[in-house]
Amino acid sequence: MKTLIILVPALAASAALAQPQPARHSAPGAGANAALDMNEMICRSQAAIGSRLNRNRVCATRRQWLEQQRMDRLYTEKAQTSRIRP
Fold it and tell me: Is 41 a member of any domain?
């Protein structure tokens, strides 16, 4: 009986993994985000500054999140490459 209990979840997991995944088609060179809806609203939970427990929910479109990520990357690169002059 114990063998059957262990075997059933294992079979269910393997069947779920065997399901074919839908293919995302995009134009060559269009980037990984070409097949995604850029106007889709995405909400994320972000830690509040100065608190380890408090979190804020921030909602924006996919396009806004990608732009924010790009600006953060540029700011970080600029900070890392700029020299401090006396």
Answer: yes
Q: Which residues pair with 42 in a beta bridge?
A: 60
pTM: 0.53
pLDDT in tens, 26-37: 444 456 666 889
Q: How many domains does the chain have?
A: 1
On whether residue 10 sits in a domain, the answer given is: no
First-to-last alpha carbon distance for the chain, in angstroms, is 77
Q: How far is CA 53 from the centre of its chain?
A: 22
Quick check: is 63 in a domain?
yes
Q: Which domain holds residue 83?
A: 36-86
Domain assignment of residue 4, yes or no: no
